[in-house]
Amino acid sequence: MTLLNAVVQGVLLGGLYALFAAGLSVMFGVMRLVNLAHGDIAVAAAFATLLVVQGGPGVDGVHPFVALLVIVPLAAVVGYLTQRGLLARTVGPSPLPALLVTFGLAIVLQNVLLLRFSADQQRLPAGDLAQRSIALGPVTVGLLPLLVFLAAIVILGGLSLFLARTSLGRVVRATRDDPGAVPLMGVDPRHVYGIATAIAFASVAVAGVAFGTSTTFAPTSGATLLIFAFEAVIIGGLGRLWGTLAGGVVLGVSQTAAAALIGPAWQILAGHLVFLLVLALRPQGLLGRGPVPA
Amino acid sequence: MKTELLAVEGLDVRYGDFLALGGIDLAVREGETVAVLGANGAGKSTLLKTVTGLLDPAAGTVRYDGADLRRVPAHRRVGLGIAMVPEGRRVFPSLTVEENLLVGARTGRKGPWTLASVYEAFPLVSQRRARRAGDLSGGEAQATAIARALMSNPRLLLLDEVSLGLAPVVVRRLYATLPRIAEAGTTVLVVEQDVRQALSIADHVHCLLEGRTVLSAPASQVTVHDVGRAYFGLPDDEAGAA
Question: Chain A partners of B102 at a C-beta cutoff of 8 Å?
Answer without folding.
Answer: 167, 170
